[in-house]
Amino acid sequence: MTSLRGPIALIAETEADDSHEQLFDDGVALTKQYEATRTDLDGLATAICKLRRVVELTPKDHPDTAPRLSWLGASLFLHFETTGDLQHIAEAISAQETALELTSEGDPDRAVRLANLGASLWSRSERTGDLHDLAEAIEARQRALELTPEGHPDMASRLSGLGASLRSRFEHTGDLQDLAEAISADQRALEHTPEGHPDMAWQLTGLGMSLWSRFERTGDLQDLAEAISMNQRALEITPEGHPDMARRLANLGLFLWSRFEHTEDLQDLAEGISAQQRALVLIPEGHPDMALRLANLGNSLRSRFDLTEDLEDLAEAISAQKRALVLIPEGHPDMALQLASLGTSILSRFGHTEDLDDLAEAISMQHRALEITPEGHPDMALRHCNLAVSFEARFGHTGENQDFTEALSHCRTAATSPFGPPHIRLQAAKHWAGLLEEFNPGSSEILTAFDTAIRLSTLTTTLDQVLENRYSQLVDTSGLALQAASAAFALQRVDKALEWLEQGRCLVWRQLTSLRTPLDDLSRHDSHLAESVVKLSKKLEGAGSVRNAARSAMLMSEKVSLEDQARDHLRNAREWDELVTKVRATPGFERFLEPSPWHTLLPYLPEAGHAIIVNVDTRRCDAIVLSTGRSTPLHIPLPSFSLAKCNQYRQDLTNQLQAHDYRERGGTVATVLEEADKERGIRKVILRKNRETSVQDILQGLWTDLVKPVLQALEIEKTAPPSTEVAPRIWWCPTGPLSFLPIHAAGIYANEGAECLLDYAVPSYTPTIAALTDRVRNARPIEKATSGLFMTCQPNAPGASHIPGTTKEVQFIENLVTKEGLRSERLEGSTITPAICLDSMERFNSIHLACHACQDIANPLDSRFLFHNGSLDLLAILQRNLKNADLAFLSACQTGTGAEELPDEAVHLAAGMLAAGYRRVVATIWAIRDEHAPHVATDFYQYLLYHRDPADGSGFDGMHSARALHHATQQLRIRLGDNSDQSLLSWIPYVHFGY
Predict the structure, then answer these.
(1) 48, 124, 350, 844: most buried, per Cβ within 10 A?
(2) Alpha-carbon distance 54 to 75, whole Å?
(3) What region holds the CHAT domain (predicted)?
(4) 671 and 809 both lie in a single domain
(5) What is the mean pLDDT of residues 280-296?
């Protein structure tokens, strides 16, 4: 650190010759010179001494006292920024506070003095972690902005300063509202900075840091990509030798490392390490940033070791992190982070060397990190997670029960902590449950662990995110509910298994449903409160359905507008939580919008049927049956079924679909153009036939191991002709990969002993049991004004094969409906647009879409129906609240096929129609033949209309749609005339969802 004694002596010798003004002018000039170059620290020390002296010589009531104090504060602030000397920043703050006290309201210099004080308070809080300083810094910077007129040259820097302070508070508290405000301020700062301005790089850097911080919390890779882009632009306009070059290189290295952690792109990691190493070369010895730069480089090198197992990388990582630990001062807020990082690196070395001394050192480092992490800090849960991993590693090596107990304790503490990112706490809860399952499988604590995990899984997909982001977050929780249910079955807790399967699946659909919950009871009790819920739910639903736009090509003004919307959405989400809490405080509404306990489902089960949820997990498979008149769930273990069989059946079925040209698969194979009109897929391809496992084999396996045991347990008998009994309804609720298999077609199709589920019952599907019971609970008569059928056919959608059967199909249907005197409308080809179709969906309670459809696996909400004039996507449908919707017949391909990465979220067009308000949906789980579709539709509507009771005045409704589809597929089976794989694949894709 530079001594100030020399400059003081120099001033004392020359003071007699210097006027007060000269001392001040010299001090200001030296301060400005250092600010521009950051090279002459001795010159800055001289400036401080001159400014101190001139302040001493200036009477407090003199008009120049405030500006002289302000410049003294500025010079001391710059010295602290370089040296980290806390005495200097304390003196700077004192001088700036006094200057502010001497500055009257209305003085044009008040804004700059508030801004400078805010900068100093923020800088000290960065060094000490003092949240009081940080709060005062934010307040000062906000007041400075309020006094800054639009167009003022300092507007951008003051916005950027506020953004940095708000970002810092987010890092301490995890409050996303602060981060949203920070990003908004940073964007506005950039918007106010003209091209070529010397502060442009600084503004780009600030926005990049805020976007990276949000990525760290939400995992949104678009934020990270933009952060990297901002930082790269900042570097491009930073001249060689600039004092901020090192910081910007280090930031780029950090951002690239973060992206590597998500994508495992080695090029990102290599470029990140290179940038961090270059930054270290440029940082002068003794600079306060040195420790952080070394620690971040260590993290990057450890990541490369984890991938390549190059011990040189790990040795260099540990060396860098140990150097960082030596350099960081006691009490620094980053100390805990550095200790934790070093502990993780040493744990990595133990994994390679199995040296217990390494493990002991790692645990010691992690303990120290935990001890100095403030209570309530968002990193507290992560500290406990790190220790849990280390103690588990030692338990695995030594078998000491104390280590197992410690691992369990740290997992439990992290999972149940009210602080920290939900995904970290969820990780801890899963680890907690996993430890118990492996080493103490009979413990009832497993139930507590999974209860915690299921609750936390709902917090990773909250209403403050748009729908697309919620789905991406759910990939990490896929299968959790199934694993939890399996554990509950093992502990004979069928009730828990049922609750977890309901609470932990279809999370996004459940959120959407909660925003559309009927509020009649609440309105009668408190109409004002109910009205507030309705208004806010509409805002949240509209904002949540907004599609993520590609921000890279946007103007900054567009990005600012987008962030303003996001900030409003976040604020509304918080208000929603507060409003729900208020409703739950109302007597009689204590469980408002909470997942229903299993016993509340029973009164609203459909009559004369069974709802069956099938859990598929690595350890076991089970079915739970809920039936009207049965007071408890019926548990049916399925010992002959397994996850391995399920996955194999799914792969075999995929092979058969490809072999029979029922599903497109990427590649360079030739398109069969001359056969294109036979299928409502996008394209047909020639693929190698795979006959090793036939479709019959798959269906027989499902029958023998799954469906037949359930039917036997329920004592359901065959009702096929000539029996006159009405077949019971069965609603299947499959989980995991079973969601992609045709349970409804399970059976033995060989000539001898042929039987199948259709001989016993009328099958339907439901995403969850609650999705079914909600439709019974909220049953409503068909409104006469909307009763009717809207139809469209799209035989020539651009980019898709010609499907002439769609025209014939809707003509047949229209003739049937018209003959019955029911309201209908038919629009074809170019006469309809997606917008017109959406309007028609509001005017008619039932719709029939005969067209191509496309399931978007990468972005499920972009799954769509293809029209001649554009496409109708799932997101657009969800944005309409179709309160009169009843029946949707989706005569297109793969409208009931979900996303492979999210099998338990039912992300497909059929479920989307249910979520949009339709009570029942006919869909398909793979491509359908164009020549069969008109006959299936005709048989379906003939049955539906024949069994309609005109006397009840119900008009057109889909009450008998499941039985109508059962009848129509049976008729198609008769027409096909055999049970060949080709014939089976022709009728099986038709499925029924809903009530």
Answers:
(1) 48
(2) 13
(3) 697-994
(4) no
(5) 91
What's the per-residue H, E or C state across 936-960?
A: HHHHHHHHHHHCCCHHHCCCCCCCC
Question: pLDDT by residue (tens digit) across 671-684?
Answer: 222 333 445 543 33
A 10 A CB-CB count for 32 gives 15
Do residues 125 and 253 both lie within one domain?
no
Domains held by the chain: number? 6
Residues 911 and 981 occupy one common structural domain: yes
Calpha distance 696→678 (Å, rounded): 23
Per-position b or e across 933-969, b if 16+ CB within 10 A of its CB = bbbbbbbbbbbbbeebeeeeeebbbbbbbbbbbbbbb
**Cα 286 to Cα 80: distance, rounded to the nearest angstrom:** 12
Q: Indicate whether 931 and 969 sit together in one domain.
A: yes
Nearest CA-CA partner of 78 in 97, 98, 96, 92: 92
Cα 409 to Cα 52, 285, 365, 372, 419, distances in angstroms: 55, 42, 18, 19, 17
205 in the same domain as 188: no
Domain carrying residue 48: 1-98
- In the predicted structure, residue 561 carries a pLDDT above the cut 90: no
What is the Cα gyration radius of the chain? 34
Of the pLDDT bands very low, low, confident and very high (cuts 50, 70, 90), residue 160 is very high
Q: Which of 663, 671, 513 is nearest to 594 (CA)?
A: 513
Amino acid in the structure at residue 443: S
Distance CA 548, CA 565 (A): 12
Token digits for 915?
Answer: 């979520």
Q: Could you give the angle at which helices 445-459 and 480-490 cross, rounded to 10 degrees? A: 160
Whether residue 682 lies inside any domain: the answer is yes
Residue 548 DSSP label = P
- The pLDDT tens digits for 758-776 are 999 999 999 999 999 988 9
**Alpha helices, H only, 38-105:** 41-57, 65-83, 86-101
Whichever domain contains 145, its CATH number is 1.25.40.10
Which pLDDT score is estimated for 586? Answer: 84
Q: Same structural domain for residues 660 and 797? A: no
**What gap in Å lies between CA 229 and CA 237, rounded to an integer?**
13
CA distances from 410 to 383, 430, 460 (A): 9, 12, 21
**Tokens of residue 719, six digits:** 């009702």
